[in-house]
Design brief:
Blueprint lengths: L4 E5 L18 H14 L4 E6 L28 E5 L10 H7 L4 E7 L1 H14 L3 E10 L3 E2 L5 E2 L1 H12 L5 E3 L1 H7 L15
Parallel strand pairs: 1-2, 1-4, 2-3, 4-5, 5-8
Antiparallel strand pairs: 6-7
Helix pairs in contact: 3-4
Length: 196
């Protein structure tokens, strides 16, 4: 990789609320922290996305404690922070123009949740022509009910969304693979076919 940016999406305290039901991949934050340390130690670009919800029922509203970043993904001085109000990190923010101004073409994406803001951001990044790696064990999501009232497990939600994104919008790697190969992975093979 050529100076890939680590894009950390919505690692915020409100997503610890038990009302969100069962979650998969409880090690996601630890893996995010591991990657964040690697990026900082390697002096690679780090970008944080913070969801500032306009939904009156959301715990991620800007004035609530749940809006705050979790300790594992707390920004430090010099790291870019972009605030969004919708699922995609590219809508209503200056993220795309920032990436272009910094000549960043490669993104390694982690965060919450796999099927909402992570998926939306990965899809849009791929469509915009960025080369994307999604770190599967540094993302997580929650169980959900389908339209028929049947419960879909958190693990199934996570697995299916990773499968849907892989090869079409990104390549999916594990934290260990990224840490072992951060400078050797060829992102280009995983780009959306329209961008090849």
């Amino acid at each position: 990789m050529d100076s890939p940016a680590l894009l950390i999406i919505d690692v915020q305290q409100g997503l610890d609320n038990p009302a969100l039901r069962k979650r998969t991949n409880l090690n996601a934050e630890a893996n995010i922290a591991r990657l964040l340390k690697l990026w900082r130690d390697s002096h690679l670009p780090v970008i944080h996305i913070q969801h500032c919800s306009t939904d009156p029922d959301s715990l991620l509203q800007p004035h609530l404690p749940g809006n705050a970043f979790k300790p594992e993904a707390m920004p430090v001085s010099g790291e870019a922070v972009f605030q969004k109000t919708v699922n995609s990190a590219f809508i209503g923010t200056e993220l795309e123009s920032y990436l272009k101004s910094e000549q960043i073409k490669q993104l390694v994406i982690v965060g919450l949740t796999t099927d909402h803001c992570v998926s939306s951001s990965v899809r849009m990044a791929g469509n915009l022509g960025f080369e994307v790696i999604l770190v599967g064990d540094a993302t997580a999501t929650f169980e959900r009910y389908d339209n028929d009232g049947k419960l879909i497990s958190a693990q199934d939600m996570h697995r299916i969304h990773l499968a849907s994104l892989s090869g079409e919008f990104c390549r999916v790697f594990s934290t260990a693979e990224i840490c072992d190969r951060v400078f050797q992975i060829d992102l280009g093979e995983g780009r959306h076919p329209a961008n090849r």
